[in-house]
Amino acid sequence: MRPKNNRKPLRDEAPKVRRAPGSPTKSQLRAHADAIEQARFAKWKTVLGIAGTTWSKVHATELSRSNGDINVLAGLVQLRHALSRQEADSQVKAFYDQHMQIAPITLSSFMPAVSARPAAEPVVAPVASSAESA
């Protein structure tokens, strides 16, 4: 029986590549994407009334179900206002540019601080001389 570490690849498998030190892990990238999505969703809830007045023929429940997805919203605007897709896309993009400004979430907030600390120097306690103790 052949040991596992000497197995031959089934096909031409690409070798595994390690990530560079200091680059984000998959879980950090996933957390970053989730944070951006949550921020966009929270901002959409605050802008929902403005979107309702901008596109009066789109019902409020349809707007809230779109969850701020730009493609879904453009489809609703196109359908309800009988516009071309390009016109609906341009209206929704202009709306997003004006109202959906989200504060940037940096990836560095999800990464642990990596600092090059110098090696700790040994602590030497001063030795009291007999002249000082007298």
TrEMBL record:
Residue ranges, annotated region (Disordered): 1-31
Gene3D superfamilies hit by this protein: YjbJ (1.10.1470.10)
InterPro entries in the cross-refs: YjbJ_sf
Top-level taxon in the UniProt lineage: Bacteria
Protein name: Uncharacterized protein
The species this protein was found in: Hydrocarboniphaga effusa AP103
